[in-house]
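note to self: dont lose this again. the chain is below, predicted strucutre after it. 292 aa total, dont forget to put it in the shared folder this time
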Amino acid sequence: MQLGMIGLGRMGGNMTARLEQAGHDLRTYDPNVPSTAGSLEELRDQLAAPRAFWMMVRAGQITDDTFHALLELADPGDTIVDGGNSNFRDSQRRYAEAQERGVHFVDAGVSGGIWGLKAGYCLMVGGDDEPVSRLEPIFVDLAPEDGYAHVGGAGAGHFVKMVHNGIEYGLMQAYAEGFEVLRSSDFELDLEQIAGIWRYGSVVRSWLLELLYDAFAQEGSGLEQIKGYVEDSGEGRWTILEALNEDVPVPVITAALFARFASRQDESFAAKVNAALRNQFGGHAVRTAKDA
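---
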């Protein structure tokens, strides 16, 4: 079937290629790379009604701007899909705005990263039955077998993807802490070897562990060329905020997010305060800048 893809970055470009390989007719727009259309207006004119536009752009203002531009161009019966990592509350708002124009809005949580072109993308889709059913050939061909589900109404797709990413934070932090304990021990352990054997038969085996094994193989067990600075894209924060709203304890996800914050500090001011207090009340020695 026909689809207009907006945004041809690492995800959008590979998703376009996967759909074209499956026989779909893709029309594209991205001002930064060669596309079939030079503008959103031209993209609209390349698509047959009822049109389907898929936004694959960064969450935030650019998504909002693109959505509103499409809303002005779309005809009743057209569908706008947001496949980015938008906050589910923004998706609910956009759904309501689209409804007022007679335009369908679908939120699709997408997981798969740079491996999705070959392995497929896990898709968590929210929205009304009619547009989701009409676009199901797209969802099915993007996903691996059993990797797609229509999870609920407007916003549900991005809500499920938000929690998915919160869980990812916790899993990654558990591996990070465990391997730091291994590396700090008195044993001369080969971390690449250990990550390798844990891939087979172990209860902690996972795709993330396979990726860690690959990282050790490429970078060495010390990961010397990688700076320990970890960004977050927002979903972990949103997961924690929703957990607070629902009175649900999420200590692991919260600790994992805070560990990412700590990774960005060259030197923690809180640690300085702790050291100063220990010196004041107990006379404990402090390290000065000259000791570094």
